[in-house]
TrEMBL record, chain B:
<dbReference type="InterPro" id="IPR010065">
    <property type="entry name" value="AA_ABC_transptr_permease_3TM"/>
</dbReference>
<dbReference type="InterPro" id="IPR000515">
    <property type="entry name" value="MetI-like"/>
</dbReference>
<comment type="function">
    <text>Part of the ABC transporter complex GltIJKL involved in glutamate and aspartate uptake. Probably responsible for the translocation of the substrate across the membrane.</text>
</comment>
<keyword id="KW-1133">Transmembrane helix</keyword>
<comment type="similarity">
    <text>Belongs to the binding-protein-dependent transport system permease family. HisMQ subfamily.</text>
</comment>
<feature type="transmembrane region" description="Helical">
    <location>
        <begin position="67"/>
        <end position="85"/>
    </location>
</feature>
<feature type="transmembrane region" description="Helical">
    <location>
        <begin position="200"/>
        <end position="219"/>
    </location>
</feature>
<keyword id="KW-0472">Membrane</keyword>
<dbReference type="GO" id="GO:0006865">
    <property type="term" value="P:amino acid transport"/>
</dbReference>
<keyword id="KW-0812">Transmembrane</keyword>
<feature type="transmembrane region" description="Helical">
    <location>
        <begin position="160"/>
        <end position="180"/>
    </location>
</feature>
<feature type="transmembrane region" description="Helical">
    <location>
        <begin position="97"/>
        <end position="115"/>
    </location>
</feature>
<dbReference type="GO" id="GO:0022857">
    <property type="term" value="F:transmembrane transporter activity"/>
</dbReference>
<keyword id="KW-1003">Cell membrane</keyword>
<protein>
    <recommendedName>
        <fullName>Glutamate/aspartate import permease protein GltK</fullName>
    </recommendedName>
</protein>
<keyword id="KW-0614">Plasmid</keyword>
<comment type="subunit">
    <text>The complex is composed of two ATP-binding proteins (GltL), two transmembrane proteins (GltJ and GltK) and a solute-binding protein (GltI).</text>
</comment>
């Protein structure tokens, strides 16, 4: 292979004049993490709500939940990204749209909202599965104790369901983190975007992509380790 | 709000959107899904072979692919495929391959990791007694797999394989990052040319929504039929 390897490229100054190429990648990493965490807050809370809606006895609530999930799962993430970034500011009332378009870091806010709503549909499916796999007797026991529906969910169903679905939720968290790279299409300077611009500036294709790959692998490893620690910590004593 | 909408731009670009864009998307989806399922089955068989030299690389490959963002993998192969081509053909310089070939290689290899997890579950779900019975009547490993295990695994896993293919269909829109003209790419080009982003992106979203909901309804119906057979 006639390719000129140059691993010292990371310590050379980047043409942006604000530091080395390594600094550039690290700044991308911090945007990736910020986007992933902020969107996860939306995804987790909204997803739990939608998931619960789908398990309520009310037909109307179920329909709202199902519609949400079908809508957000059946449109590609990239298309949703474009809808939030290009279409939403246009169809909002005039002054709001202008305000949105002039917002500094608008691609960051757009990515957070878009990923939050997108991942919420996946979290909702996990939460619903988690609640549905619990024995029916738990809900009945809650009712028999005189708990309201809200209390049954708060004290009986959800604490159990979250424990059951922790492993799939971890992989949704990682999917959400990986999906932040789609936001490079709307101009978010996250890790993959930074690796790409490093490749364009320095022509060291494989070094820059290797660095990004190693960083993504490292994050996955950390998240999986933390999650399995968490799993043992929150396990109900006596249940396996 | 919707007063200055112009859906004429959608109508006049329909032949381009579907004739060029959608044909590309469907071709890429079909080829990558077939390749991915074949390769995924091989990887699944490697992981379940019980031979460390085969199982370990397969496991590393699957976990590696699953922890990387698809966008990064698309970039990797976009630059790597010419070098692989050079190595395979023994040429003196990196050979130029089209962006389509590079996308096809990317999606096949990437999705193979996901298809292999489905096939692994499918193979593991076949009762052990069947393998034992096949060996008892003197079938070789190849014969056992080909005539006993895999046909059942495929049938049981067909709904999941098809659902993953719908995910793949949505994921192909990411070829946008290497400027290929798939359905979304075509919509995007028209949108930029005519300054009609709102109409084009809403239309593209609607088309994806209708196709994916129809497809997953069909998969669900199929799942019910497969369940009865079992």
């Amino acid at each position: 292979m006639n390719y000129n390897w140059n691993w010292r490229i990371f310590f050379e100054p980047s043409p942006e004049g604000t530091g080395t190429y390594a600094d550039m990648l690290l700044s991308g990493l911090s945007w990736t993490i910020a986007t992933a965490l902020c969107s996860w807050i939306i995804a987790f809370s909204l997803g739990s709500l939608i998931g619960v809606l789908r398990t309520l006895p009310s037909r109307g609530a179920q329909r709202v939940g199902t519609t949400y999930v079908e809508l957000f799962r059946n449109i590609p993430l990239l298309v949703q990204m474009f809808l939030w970034f290009y279409v939403v500011p246009e169809i909002l009332p005039g002054s709001w749209g202008t305000w949105l378009k002039q917002l500094p870091n608008s691609s960051f806010y757009t990515a957070v909202i878009c990923l939050g709503f997108f991942t919420a549909s996946r979290v909702a499916e996990q939460v619903r599965t988690g609640i549905e796999t619990l024995p029916r007797g738990q809900r009945m026991a809650g009712t028999a104790l005189g708990l309201t529906t809200w209390q049954t969910y708060r004290y009986v169903l959800l604490p159990n369901a979250y424990r059951v679905i922790l492993p799939p939720l971890t992989s949704e968290f990682l999917n959400n983190l990986k999906n932040t790279s789609v936001a490079l299409t709307i101009g978010l300077l996250e890790l993959t975007a930074r690796a790409r611009s490093m490749q364009e500036f320095s022509s060291q294709v494989f070094e820059s992509f290797t660095a990004a790959t190693v960083i993504y692998l490292g994050i996955s490893l950390i998240v999986v380790t933390v999650s399995s620690k968490l799993e043992t910590r929150i396990a109900v004593p006596g249940s396996r | 709000m919707f007063t200055d909408f112009d859906f004429g731009v959608v109508l006049s670009s329909l032949p381009y959107l579907f004739g060029t864009g959608m044909v590309f998307t469907l071709t890429l989806t079909a080829l990558a899904a077939s390749g991915g399922i074949i390769l995924g089955t091989i990887i699944a068989m490697m992981r379940l072979s019980g031979i460390t030299a085969l199982a370990l690389p397969a496991k590393i490959y699957v976990n590696f692919m699953r922890s990387l963002p698809l966008v990064l993998v698309i970039f990797w192969f976009y630059f790597l495929v010419p070098y692989i081509g050079q190595w395979m053909t023994g040429a003196s310089r990196p050979i130029s391959v089209g962006a389509f070939t590079s996308a096809l290689v990317t999606f096949t290899l990437f999705e193979a990791a996901f298809f292999s997890e489905i096939m692994r579950a499918g193979i593991q779900a076949i009762p052990k007694g069947q393998t034992a019975a096949a060996q008892a009547i003197g079938l070789t490993y190849g014969q056992t797999m080909r005539t006993v295990i895999l046909p059942q695994a495929f049938r049981n896993m067909l709904p999941l394989l098809l659902t993953q293919t719908i995910v793949l269909f949505q994921d192909t829109s990411l070829v946008y990052v290497i400027s290929l003209t798939d359905f979304l790419g075509a919509a995007s080009k028209v949108a930029q040319r005519d300054g009609r982003l709102v109409e084009m992106y809403l239309f593209a979203a609607a088309v994806y929504l209708v196709i994916c909901i129809t497809a997953s309804t069909l998969v669900r119906r199929l799942q019910r039929r497969v369940a009865i057979i079992r």
